[in-house]
Amino acid sequence: MNTIYKKLNKDDLHQSLLLFKKLKEEAAEVTYVDIVEKKQVENWLHQPNYYIYVAIIDEKIVGFFRGVRGLSNESHGILITIAIDPDYRNRHIAKSLILYSLDDIKKKEKNISLARAYVYSNNKASINTMLCCGFTISGSVYQHHFDAKTKTYIDDVIFHKILE
């Protein structure tokens, strides 16, 4: 099974929505579950401070990466959000998609030197992925999110990576 990593384009919008719908059905806690219209994703393609990449297997989008840079061209950092189709997890797709995307961004945007991500402290798989990608834990937001399943508050772990 060959995985293709590339920038998102208009032809990928429908497949992106299918992934987001699947994540919503899973009750995934990622911002993509709130996206319901192609226009919302298409708008990202026209934002100069958005960097969107996908992982594709058998013509199906199985991974989605979004990096958002501050509005100023002087902003040196991007905040990343990533999601993987539940049926394709534990195959190192997230790691490969993150590394591919950050490498491409760094080649094209010389003044972006930092990537940051926030991960819920109970999401061990994502924490391990970030560490495997060379991110460092730089702090946390204490009791930032209420987990309805466990009826407890959990922290956001803040990760960063210097892009060289």
Automatic annotation (TrEMBL):
Keyword line: Transferase
Gene3D superfamilies from the UniProt entry: 3.40.630.30
Entry-linked CDD domains: NAT_SF
Signal peptide limits: none
Pfam family, one: Acetyltransf_1
Domain of life: Bacteria
Keyword Transferase part of the UniProt annotation: yes
Gene Ontology MF terms in the entry: acyltransferase activity, transferring groups other than amino-acyl groups
Matches recorded under InterPro entries: Acyl_CoA_acyltransferase, GNAT_dom
Start and end residues of each N-acetyltransferase domain: 3-164
Name assigned to this protein: Acetyltransferase (GNAT) family protein
